Each structure stands twice: as C-alpha cells, then as structure tokens.
Automatic annotation (TrEMBL):
Protein keywords: ATP-binding, Coiled coil, Kinase, Membrane, Nucleotide-binding, Phosphoprotein, Transferase, Transmembrane, Transmembrane helix, Two-component regulatory system
Family matches, as CDD domains: HATPase (cd00075)
EC category: transferase
Residue ranges the record marks as coiled coil: 217-244
Official protein name in the record: histidine kinase
UniProt keyword annotation of ATP-binding present: yes
Organism: Rhodovulum imhoffii
The reaction(s) this protein catalyses: ATP + protein L-histidine = ADP + protein N-phospho-L-histidine
Endpoints of the signal sequence: none
Entry GO MF terms: ATP binding; phosphorelay sensor kinase activity
Segments crossing the lipid bilayer: 6-31, 160-179
EC number annotated for this UniProt entry: 2.7.13.3
Keyword Transmembrane among record annotations: yes
Length: 462
C-alpha cells in the first residue's frame, strides 16, 4: 500500500501540510474579501448619492430605486458639513440586526466577523459604516442584506479551496518524484546491493561501491562497504582456518601414529641399566606422551572445538618445573634464567595437560621475546590465590609487545608477538582457560617487559 512506502507517506504529508497552509491563508483571505465587498458597496452608495446631489435632489422614484439596486444597498446616509442626511432610501424588509464600522477595523475584528458570516446561513439586514472616498464627506452609512455577501464569500472560498487543491496536488507530485529520485531509488539500490552481497558474501565483486550524492546516503553506503569488506575478509579467513584445520588434523593423525611407535621404543630404552639413560627416559616418555595428547587434541581442534577440560588436582610446582626444564633445554646457550616462586604445596583444580600447554605457550613466548634482544633476561613464574580464584603470573624482561600484537592479542593469525609468529599459541591458550571458566589476561607490557596472568575460578573444595 502507498501508506506503507516512504514516498507515499511523503505524498500524504505534503498534501496535508499544503492544505493546512492554505487554510491558514484562506481565513484572512476571506476576511479581506468581505472587507473589500463592503467597501465596494460603500463606494457605489457614495457615487449614487453624489449623482442625486448633482441633480439638486430632483430625481424620480424609479431612478432612485435603480441607483440603490446598482449599489446593492437599501439606503444611504451621508454626513457632510457636520450634518447627517439620508440621501437615498427604500423600504427595509426587516429591522437592522447588526452594525459594522469599517473605519478602524483590524484583523482581530474582521476575521471573526467573516467567520460568523460564513457560519450563519440566515439572511440578515446589517448597517455598515465607513469613510467616504476622495473626501466626499465625514461618514457614509448604508444598510444591506447579508445573503449576497455570504454567497459571494462562499464562491470566493470555493475558488480558494480549488486553487489550494491544485497547488497541493502539484506540489505533492513534484515532491513525490523528487523523493523517488533522491531518496527512494538510492535506498532501493542499497537494499539491492545488500541482497546481492548476501547471495555470495565471499565474492568481493559484490561489495557495494558508494555512488550516492546525498551526504547521508553516501555515509550509509560507505559504512556498508566497510562492513561488507570486513565480513568478506573474516569469511575468507574462516575458510582458510577451516582448510588449515583439516590439514593439521590429517598431519596430527599420522604424527600420532609415529609418536606412538616412538613411545614403544622409549619404553624399551627404559630397560637399559645406564643411569643417565634411566634418568632421561622418563622425560622422553613424558614428552612423547604429551606430543601424542597434543595430536589428539589437535584432531579435536580441527573439528572447530577443544575438548572439555578434565579437572583434577594439580601440584602446580611440579607442573611448572616440567615446563621450565623443557624450556631450559630449548634455550641452549641463551643467557636466560628462570625464577619459580610457587609453594610446593600449592594445589589447584585444572586439566593438567591443558594447563601444561598454556604455560608452555606463555613461557616459550617469553623466552623467544628475550632471545630476540640478544641480551640476558629472566622469566618469572609465581602463583597466589584468594577466596575466589587461583592466579598464575608469567612475566619476562623482554622488549614488550608491539602495538599490532596488543591490538589483536588473542586472535588467531593476527596476535603474533614475534616476526613470523602465527598468534595461534595465545589464541589457543585463551580458549583453553575459558574452557576452565577462567581468563587469560595481559597484565602489563612495555620496555621493562611483559606479564600475563592466568585466573582460574575456585569451584568445589580440593
């Protein structure tokens, strides 16, 4: 329906407003028409009285009646030389019911009188007083019937209303066409562009190109273009991540089989009587077991989900010691020291394998950040707790995170903290901690170093 369309509502509103404006014009116009009508009757009556005076008041009754009929009045009273004189007269069909003085009448008087005359259909006899034209006396007074006046006012009002209707329709039509061209058609183009884009959001050719000349519409198209561009990029990245997840899942499947074989050989090596071998084999077996577990969880991650954590009591000092020892071996000749400030009896509830992965990612990132500087550094791991949560702090004395890494810190492939990094480590770590109901947060970063904190909520008592 036309009422439900933007251009249709503009059309109806335009007609309504134009008609309202015409009504506001109509009322004073009708009042002015009534005043002009009465003044013209006074002027005609003055001309008729002057004709009588010019003939030395010698005129027959038929000519006098014709003069009054042409003037549209019943009688004429003229005041000249301080004398009030009845110049022309004829029988009045009924008593005078009202008197109107036009000499000092203003809009506040003329408008109500005109509206009352329009609203009163009963013919009445009224007296009208005015000033003679061209100094033809001090005052002129006539009596006349209101029926011709009201008929003339109605006729004039109808002409005004008809003209108003024509103007409003023409104005509304022009505005309708203007709204169609300037607003409706551009909006329809935007809607069509959105529909076309929704059919294939990965296709960059379907992204809208701003063409509107109206500033507001141009801003809307620009905002839509930016939104579509970001969405297309996100969809492409999601597709690449899905493909990468599939590839990683395939690799992890085969790697798991290889590592299982390596675990069997490690178990056999453990039977050796060499003391150094006996000390190394548990570490090797533990590392291989963790690698197998990582492959299995990677297969789950390839399905776009991490397995739910298997919560258990964890002796944090022992878990951190295993992570630190592995990183010490990886550090090799790098001048990096590790400071562990964790009580031996510090217990928390978490999935040990997932927490091991998170700590490994954080400590490895810290070690690599320090190694890039080529200077000595220290990595600190400490833990504390309060009534609601456990907190694990991992800090380093590295160069701090670059601005881009801080902006997209926990986003895959965007929050890499070093050149060539993918940012997957922090993204996976944050996801794993969220699975525990906790948070991984950046405490601080700057030239003096970087610190992360793992917050794990306390659930049931240990």
């Amino acid at each position: 329906m036309i009422v439900n369309s933007l251009s249709g509502r503009f059309l109806l509103l335009t007609v309504a407003f134009v008609m309202l404006a015409e009504v506001l014009i109509f009322v004073p116009s009708v009042a002015r028409f009534r005043e002009d009508y009465l003044l013209s009757r006074l002027e005609r009556a003055q001309i008729a009285s002057l004709a009588l005076l010019a003939s030395d008041e010698m005129i027959d009754e038929r000519l006098e009646a014709e003069l009054l009929r042409n003037a549209g009045v019943f009688n004429v009273v003229l005041r000249r030389d301080q004398a009030r004189e009845l110049i022309l007269s004829s029988p009045i069909p009924s008593p005078v019911q009202a008197t109107f003085d036009l000499r000092n009448a203003g809009p506040m008087t003329l408008i109500p009188d005109a509206l009352r005359r329009l609203a009163d259909p009963v013919p009445r006899i009224v007296r009208v007083i005015g000033e003679p034209v061209r100094e033809g006396g001090q005052l002129i007074e006539v009596t006349l019937e209101t029926a011709p006046l009201r008929a003339a006012m109605i006729e004039y009002g109808l002409r005004i209303l008809l003209l108003s209707a024509v103007i409003s329709i023409l104005t509304a039509l022009l505005l309708f066409l203007a709204v169609q061209r300037l607003l409706v058609l551009p909006i329809k183009r935007v809607v069509r562009a959105m529909q076309v884009y929704a059919e294939a959001p990965e296709d960059t050719r379907r992204i809208i190109t701003p063409t509107a000349r109206v500033r507001e519409l141009s801003e809307a198209e620009t905002a839509l273009q930016s939104l579509q561009t970001e969405l297309t990029g996100a969809l492409r990245q999601k597709e690449r991540l899905a493909q990468l997840g599939g590839a990683v899942a395939k690799i992890s499947h085969d790697l798991r089989n290889i590592l299982t074989t390596a675990q069997l050989f490690a178990d056999r090596v453990g039977e050796s009587e060499d003391p150094s071998v006996k000390r190394s084999v548990p570490k090797i077996v533990g590392a291989v077991s963790r690698a197998i577990s990582l492959c299995e969880t990677t297969l789950a991650f390839g399905k776009a989900e991490e397995p739910s954590p298997r919560l258990d009591r964890v002796v944090l000092a022992q878990l951190v010691s295993d992570v630190v020892e592995s990183e010490r071996l990886a550090a090799g000749e790098e001048d990096i020291s590790f400071a562990e400030d964790i009580p031996a009896t510090f217990l928390l509830r978490a999935d040990p394998e997932q927490l091991y992965r998170v700590l490994t990612n954080l400590i490895r990132n810290a070690r690599q950040a320090i190694a890039v500087t080529g200077k000595p550094g220290e990595i600190g791991i400490r833990a504390d707790e309060d009534v609601s949560e456990w907190q694990i702090h991992v800090s380093d004395t590295g160069p701090g995170l670059p601005p881009k890494a801080r902006e997209h810190l926990f986003q895959p492939f965007q929050g890499g903290t070093r050149k060539g990094g993918t940012g997957l480590g922090l993204a996976i770590s944050a996801e794993l901690i969220r699975g525990h109901g906790g948070r991984l947060e950046l405490e601080r970063t700057g030239p003096e170093g970087t610190a992360f904190v793992i917050r794990l909520p306390k659930g049931a008592d240990l």
